[in-house]
Specification:
The chain is mainly alpha-helical. The chain has three helices and two strands, in the order ααββα. The model has no long low-confidence stretch (mean pLDDT 90).
Length: 72
């Protein structure tokens, strides 16, 4: 999975096939961050051009639990 190493916001959007930055941030990125499924690699500088996002242990557990495509 791409989030193991970390991806930029644009990289995440591209991987998901989403074009609208505002919608992506509001509907996907912020909820994932708030739920501790994804974390910033540079939380002290959230607007850094070098900012990347990576999967947390909780996020990996969620993915493992939903690997078969069924919600639990």
């Amino acid at each position: 999975m791409a989030l193991q190493d970390g991806l930029s916001r644009a990289g995440l959007q591209q991987a998901l096939g989403l074009k609208d930055e505002k919608h992506f941030r509001k509907a996907y990125l912020l909820p994932a961050l708030d739920s501790d499924l994804v974390e910033m690699t540079r939380p002290e500088t959230p607007r850094s051009s070098k900012q990347r996002y990576r999967l947390t242990a909780l996020g990996q557990c969620w993915l493992d639990a939903h690997a078969d495509g069924r919600a639990t």
